[in-house]
Amino acid sequence: MGHNTPSMTPPFQQMAEFFRQLAGTMSEPSGMNFEKMRKMGGVEFEGTTDPMVVEQWLERVERVFEQQECTNAAKFKYANSLLQKDAYDWWKEFLNLRQGSISIAEYQQNFLRLSRYAGGIIDGERDKCRRFEEGLNGYIRKSVAILQLEYFSKLISVALTWERIDKEEASRRENRRASGACLNCGSMDQKVKDCPNPNPLSYTHTEGSVQKPVTTHSQANSGARPQNMQAAGSSGANKASGSRANARVYAMRQKNDQDGSDVVVGKFHLFGISVVTLFDPGSSHSYVCSSLAFPDNVKSARLDFDVLVTSPLGHQDVVNRIYRDCPFMIQNLVFPADLLEMPFQDYDVIVGMDWLHKHHALVN
């Protein structure tokens, strides 16, 4: 990208708005004669610091479009073909921006640098969040997308938290691997495949898929150890009808399975109702039992996508409703919570990492 790009804010905003309008109403292109359009006055655009030059270029291109009666798809492709040097570099880099192998902080810097010139493409804070999410790596993207955060600073904070947790876990596992210790519990007496104590917070991930070991219901009268389960689905960034997002509900326990040091169970109040609550940093999101008796004036909202979750007993359910800003009360203080409606009934409320992070809370 050219070194003079930061000084091009107004021109690039004009150009971004022009492309956004074309992209918003595109249909299938008809036959296009790029050479003929150039002969009629369409000229290449390399970028400039002068807004008047941009305005003149846009007007000239639009006149050619009118003469040729182009479809919007043809206009979009033709105008894009005229971008050169700094103008084309900015356009291509912004559309293709992804986190890839860089850190979230570096990705954030690149995103902010490029989005400064995209006032016509990014429409407000919420759209900014959605576009940033789209470029995040798979497992973090799926973790934050379901939260539907509408403030960019909060989105960054949550994404950085997931990145830190991932790095800490990777470092811990690498240290144990180097020492020959069990990758789950750290014991030198067995390997991970023979470990009798699966770690509910350990996990592996690959781009595009997520799998989390979970602490499940104890098998009735069997004394069985926790087993694994997976919440399956596709990216939460996809809001098309019928799409599904991942939900990590991987540390849910029955009331008689509370020996884990990473969870706390107690009775608190929600809408003035006493609720049995599990505080579990192993769950990425927070939930409320669908059978809870809510006040008549409390209504849930439908998510823009479905969430496929798996119960501790292996049953799958689709979750697509959320109660926002619920007055969750602890010691006469209210701590608002966004709660996904949950069909499982072991607890009235499960408080996960989203709430813990929001209120800077620790479970100990």
How far from one another are the termini? 49 Å
The share of residues in extended strands comes to 15-25%
Give me the Rg, rounded.
Answer: 26 Å
The secondary-structure element order is HHHHHHHHHEEEEEEEEEEH
Report the biggest beta sheet as strand number plus sense, adding barrel if it closes: 6 strands, mixed, barrel
Give the low-confidence spans: 1-9, 24-30, 198-261
Q: What class do helices, strands and sheet pairing give? A: alpha/beta
Secondary structure tally, helices:
10
Shape annotation: elongated
User: Overall pLDDT, averaged?
Assistant: 66
> What is the percent of helical residues?
25-40%
Number of DSSP strand runs: 10
Strand order of the largest sheet: 4-5-10-6-9-8
Pfam families: RVP_2 (PF08284)
Biased composition (Polar residues): 200-230
Protein name: Retrotransposon gag domain-containing protein
Region (Disordered): 196-245
List keywords for this structure.
single chain; 364 residues; alpha/beta; two-stranded antiparallel ribbon
Written description of the protein model:
- There is one protein chain.
- The protein has 364 residues and is an alpha/beta fold.
- The protein has a domain at 5-122.
- The chain contains ten helices and ten strands.
- It has helices at residues 9-24, 34-39, 51-68, 72-82, 85-95, 104-115, 124-135, 138-145, 152-179, 353-358, and strands at 204-206, 209-211, 244-246, 264-270, 273-279, 287-289, 301-310, 316-330, 333-342, 349-351.
- The strands form two sheets. The protein has a six-stranded mixed β-barrel. Strands 1-2 form a two-stranded antiparallel sheet.
- The radius of gyration is 26 Å and the shape is elongated.
- The model is unreliable at 1-9, 24-30 and 198-261 (pLDDT under 50).
- It comes from Nicotiana attenuata (Coyote tobacco).
- InterPro entries: Peptidase_aspartic_dom_sf (IPR021109), RTL1-rel (IPR032567).
- Residues 200-230 have a biased composition (Polar residues).
- Residues 196-245 are annotated as: Disordered.
